[in-house]
Amino acid sequence: MKKFKSCLYWEGRTKYERLRFLFLALICANLLLWIMPESWCRYADDTFFPAVMLLSLFYSLSALVMMFYPTLSLVSGYGEFYRDMERLTGVPVWQRHAAKLAVNLAVTGVLFVLVKIGENVMTKFAGETHSYFRMQLDLPAPEMILAVSVLFPVLYIWAYLVLYQRNGNRHGVLAWVIAALLFNMFHFAGIDMIWRIVIRTLICVPFFISAGRMEKRLDI
Amino acid sequence: MTAADDILQDRGTLLTMRQANKWLDGRKIINMADLTIKKGRIIGVVGDNGYGKTVLLKMMAGLMEQDSGEIVRYTKEISFVLSGRSFYPWMRVMDALKYYRDFYDDFDINRAQQLIGESALEPDRKIRLLSTGQQERLCLILALARNSRLYLMDEPLNGIDPPFKKDFKKFLLANLPEDASVVMATHLLKELEYLFDEVLFVTGYGIRQMETEEIREKYHQSVEDYYMEVVRCEKV
């Protein structure tokens, strides 16, 4: 348990070091836009349109980071020199993966809140004929956060390792396609959100275990 | 572990390899390795580039698994000396100490801090901004601040400045726990051979384990000369 807590801490630290400037920029942008009167925002939209576009682009990119980073962060360490440092600790693979997923969940949750606030404050720039950054979700927010930070990454790392096991090459894009197909196979319409989450999580458990076993076996 | 392994453990054996093989990229890197690491020994690993010294050490550490054969570790207290690039890019010197403290119960952070101070390393400096020699020194300190029984070092003197190279032997022996063993891959046979009790010659044909005294007394050659003239020219 002590080592798992340490994994959580160092994984959290790693993600913080990588994303802190993004968090800071989002917080500053949100604060600034929140205190700006709406009349100033309309004026800026008329006069400084490129700046407002850049701001909208910034929020869009932040949303993309929120969607893609949790998945890619699971495999970004493969082949890096610091992998030896992680593996020498003797912490079981499944604990390391669980720590990464838990931190993913927290980071995605925070990013979602910040980006959502950004979406709200950007409405100040919206006119009668146009608007700026908006997030349109297919799933309710809690389900989306869990899917993006935990469920999809589990399927992705499983697909990634299966492909790596076959020929020793890294097929990130193909793994993404396979994971997306798998994820969309488990589509449960007409069921309460909580049951959808439970069922999808249970389905991902064997993929989680299988991915851990593969990683242990492969020198990756 | 078998009954025979229990006996070996009682006799101070830390690790054995029995006919271990390892393939990488379709090439057999480690070929039928048979070796024994006993306590209280300093063992050099010598071989040309690409013949598997690093792979051998990683297999001993458990970072790589053998494809066939057996590796039996009679102790869990194995300390592998990392390279300077083996840390997260954002890590500072103090972060590395805290990382070791969090994951290794036998890590003495106070001793590590003392050695850091003696080596004039700044705790708040980012590791990637240290010189190569400073990084190697940090890695050595991290490994030696653990109270382990087996230390594995892969060319620890790479990039080390000449003054520290000179003091390396003293530094190692002063900080090594009693009865601990060291397995060290190196090209610097001339400088280090008198440190070694044994040598593992790693060639394309296999691994030969020999006592350094045996080489000097029986063959009347230095270990380096023996390697260059005999081992490299024959099949093991």
Automatic annotation (TrEMBL), chain A:
Keywords tagged on the record: Membrane, Transmembrane, Transmembrane helix
Recorded superkingdom: Bacteria
Keyword Transmembrane: yes
Bilayer-crossing regions: 21-37, 57-78, 98-117, 144-161, 173-191, 197-214
Coiled-coil regions listed: none
Record's protein name: ABC transporter permease
Organism: Murimonas intestini
UniProtKB/TrEMBL annotation, chain B:
GO MF annotations in UniProt: ATP binding; ATP hydrolysis activity
Swiss-Prot/TrEMBL keywords: ATP-binding, Nucleotide-binding
UniProt cross-references to InterPro entries, sorted A to Z: AAA+_ATPase, ABC_transporter-like_ATP-bd, P-loop_NTPase
Stretches assigned to the ABC transporter domain: 15-229
Domain of life: Bacteria
A Pfam short name: ABC_tran
SMART domains, sorted: AAA (SM00382)
PANTHER family, A to Z: ABC TRANSPORTER, ATP-BINDING PROTEIN, SKFA PEPTIDE EXPORT ATP-BINDING PROTEIN SKFE
Name this polypeptide is given: ABC-2 type transport system ATP-binding protein
Organism, scientific name: Murimonas intestini
Classification lineage: Bacteria, Bacillati, Bacillota, Clostridia, Lachnospirales
